[in-house]
Amino acid sequence: MTNYLALLATGTLLVTAACSAGEAPAPKPAAAPAASPAVPQAAPAAAPAAARPATSPAPGNAPATVARYQQAKGGSLEFGFVQAGAATQGHFRQFSTDLQYDEKQLAASRLKVTVQIGSLDTQDKDRDDTLKSAELLDAGKFPTAQFVASSFARRGAGLEAVGKLTLHGVTRDLRVPLTIRTNADGLEISGETTIKRLDYDVGQGDWKSTEWVGDEVKLQYRVPLTRAK
Question: Measured between alpha carbons, how far is 115 from 73 in angstroms, rounded to an integer?
Answer without folding.
Answer: 15
